[in-house]
Amino acid sequence: MTLVVAHRGNSSVAPQNTLAAFEAAWRAGAGAIEIDVQLTADGQVVVIHDETLDATTDGFGAVASTDLDRVRSLDAGGWFAPAFVGQRVPTLTEVLDLLLTRPGMDLLLEVKGAWTVEQARRVTDPVTDAGLADRVVVQSFWPETVAALREAAPGLRRGLLVLEAPHDLVDRCQDLGVVTCNPHGLLLVQHPDLVDRLHAAGLQVMVWTLDEPEHWAAAMAFGVDAIITDRPDRLAGWLAARTPAPVA
Fold it and tell me: What is the pLDDT of residues 132-142, one digit of tens each?
């Protein structure tokens, strides 16, 4: 069955990349949550998409120029709705702790930007130390970051995010040793053979970010393994309605 991946949590009903959004995704029946991680000025791993704090907190400035205590002091929910005032930018450790108490939900962890091997270990070590390696895939748009993740933790599953599908994409994936290649949804239309090519190379395909039933249907027709969506609750229901009932 196609895996439902909640993009930044259940980000249509709760502020993205917060514990509230991740809890909502689990309750909605998502098979995995997708998160974004960045480093603070003091080298701590926090869960936030943008390079700046401005869009999803009541703070401002670059994440990389702000230390953890300041980031944690900011409100990360009020911008979405008054009910979420008091939500904080989570640390990676908090997300891993949540996974340990929420069976049945895996983690697709996107590393933003170019990271060194030493920096990559700040992600991979907590994952392996928590005993969650079998429930986590680390990914990035940056090939050098995927390579750093490979060197930091060769046994941890990795993915490559792509906005284009060059002729040597499969070779790039094989060189990086990834298990999944995750394209933008438009690429499936532009390259109708893409999923088959990736599957033939033994790669999974997790397409992003699709929020409408007609797009889900098209992705499933191409044979994707997972759909990353801002509406995991709706997608889970849509898929359930199309699953044949067991024969009595």
Answer: 999 999 999 99
Phi/psi of residue 12, each to 5°?
A: -90, -15
Task: Give the other-Cβ count within 10 Å of 198's Cβ.
Answer: 23
| Higher pLDDT, residue 242 or 7 | 7
d(Cα 184, Cα 231) in Å, to the nearest integer? 16
CA distance 206 to 90: 24
Q: Say how many residues make up the chain.
A: 248
DSSP E strands, the chain: 3-7, 32-39, 45-47, 106-111, 136-140, 157-162, 180-183, 204-207, 226-229
The pair of three-digit structure tokens given for residue 116, joined into one six-digit string: 């060194």
Q: Say what the pLDDT of residue 244 is.
A: 78
Q: How far apart are alpha carbons 246 and 215 in whole angstroms?
A: 27
Q: Which residues contact residue 106 at a Cβ distance below 8 angstroms, ignoring those fewer than 6 apart?
A: 31, 32, 33, 99, 135, 136, 137
Please say if the pLDDT value at position 12 is more than 70: yes
- In order of 94, 128, 217, the CA distances from 55 in angstroms are 22, 31, 32
Question: Which amino acid, 232?
Answer: P
Asked whether the CA dihedral 224, 226, 227, 233 is positive or negative, the reply is positive
Distance separating alpha carbons of residues 187 and 203, to the nearest angstrom: 16
Interatomic CA distance for residues 168 and 173, integer angstroms = 9
What residues act catalytically? 7, 49
